[in-house]
User: Fold this.
Amino acid sequence: MDKQPVLLCSRLFQKRRQADVTLSRTVLAWTETEKSRKRRTGISSFSGKAHSQAVQVCELVTVHKAEEDWTRRRKKKAKQVAELYPHAFTVSYVRRTQQHRWRCADVTFRCTSLALCERWIHVINERLSLLSNRPKSLLVYINPYGGKRRGKHIYEQKVAPLFQHACISTDVIVTEHANHARDHLKTEANLDKYDGVVCVGGDGMFSEILHGLATRTQTDHGVDQNQQDAELVPCSLRIGIIPAGSTDCICFATVGTNDPVTSALHIIVGDSQPMDVCSVHHDDTFLSYSVSLLGYGFYGDVQTDSERKRWLGPARYDLSGVKTFLNHNHYEGTISFLPAENHMGNPRDKLLCRSGCSVCQRGPPVKEQQWQLSEKKKTETDDGSGWSVVRGKFLAINAASMSCACPRSPKGLSPSAHLADGTTDLILVRRCSRLDFLKHLLRHTNKDDQFDHSFVEVHRVKKFRFQPWLQEPGSLEDLSEATKKTGFAPICSGQTPCSYSKAQSSWTCDGEILCHADIQVSVRCGLVRLFARGIEEQQPQQCVLDDPGPLSAPDPGQQHVD
Ligand SMILES: CCCCCCCCCCCCC/C=C/[C@@H](O)[C@H](COP(=O)(O)O)NC(=O)CCCCCCCCCCCCCCC
Ligand SMILES: Nc1ncnc2c1ncn2[C@@H]1O[C@H](COP(=O)(O)OP(=O)(O)O)[C@@H](O)[C@H]1O
Ligand SMILES: [Ca+2]
Assistant:
């Protein structure tokens, strides 16, 4: 029930129905009048069964005179309406559909006088102009070669018309080569002109935009990125992602779906989702930023192999995945990490990061608590500094700063990882048999716990370091001989761990390969913000005036007016 004072309330027509339409500071609601409903259905509704719909003002896209409609198809329809009832206005708003998808829906109200119609448009526009988080001007970068090479088409057909409809101005750059967007942002772009940057492409393209923006921000503030302990300045511009890549896990894990229209609507309503960013160094050299997966071993090898198969599009990952799985390489090294405080939860606590996540809002503990917690956390390998050390042979070392959910793995690499808690989930998969590793991988696609294996351990950490061990020459020769003959490392049957080790793998960092294996990683809490709000809890169907059934329960995003 909306308890806010009513700003405007009129009896208007919606289709052929009479409705009481009210606008408060935060909600636009319309309810078919009892008289209209009785005339239409012959049944009078019982109390509590009035057919109402309510939309939050912050989820309105735009309001305009009905004849000023925005697509040709609607122009014709709106024209007919305008002829019958010349004084009409149309409100476009966000409608939630299945699986976190949003659509832009229209509702047209017809008024008895021009003055009333103009008043409604004026008052709604006034409310919209108060929403200061909405972008008015955007800089758009399109990677025409990402994913299935449909980025330009997707933007032009699905996104640009919506931005135009919402009166957002855009400067569009179709990239001509890799790092075009990054370098343009780093040095050339006049960022004062814009309220945000839009990335049309995949995770690799997002990574370019992030690097351009974050590096530019540090340069402008005189911060040296090469210093591991430098306090980085958060980027002021938000980034919107229109998914048009191969994995698109950053979009999927922050919005809940890979759908260009949904992403465009999150940009239009001016959502804001802070995101953790890992800074990756090799000694005193800054290497890269990462927001999703930093993977050594299995995922690093998949990425390296898949780069050679780019022409295959998204399918390259499946092919390289199978090949890498059959190779079954393991890598030796030492990993040291600084665990997160206990109150930040742990990767197996099943607390999913959702819109308005309470874990992300917890922040660091007060000083004395921090001391107690770090005392508690000390492990056997802890040397007193709070750091833990693990040595061994690994099939994969993955750091997931967010769940990394994507269509391939809807719950992700670390289902309970958080978008903006200042931590990353470090997953260590020790050497095991192919069969066991396959079982582990399969659990990324079903409900079973992928961490519930003796050869897997997972830690929530704030920092980590990796130091590969160099291989003795003998075992390297064994491997190359075996691989030369078969194309793959030899396959062993049964449960026994049987795998060969190359000296080093590479790190994949949000889909880009790093040039060093020996790295130091530090999580920067909420360094960048996206035009997103995190994944919303599944919502009940919206109630509509046409709906003959009883009202569904109101949801947090859709206040209901009785
Ligand atoms: C047996 C089936 C196992 C399926 C396991 C799927 C786990 C998928 C986890 C995906 C995490 C993705 C994290 C995001 C990474 C992206 O930053 C990054 C770049 O994205 P972009 O191309 O859009 O720029 N994408 C990736 O690194 C893609 C990783 C995809 C890995 C696919 C692995 C498939 C493994 C298949 C093993 C099959 C064994 C078959 C045995 C007969
Ligand atoms: N015009 C371009 N030509 C070639 N490569 C590009 C271009 N624009 C961006 N890239 C690069 O393409 C790579 C993959 O882009 P991305 O959009 O993530 O697609 P995918 O998800 O298919 O990997 C990124 O590393 C990015 O730097
Ligand atoms: Ca995190």
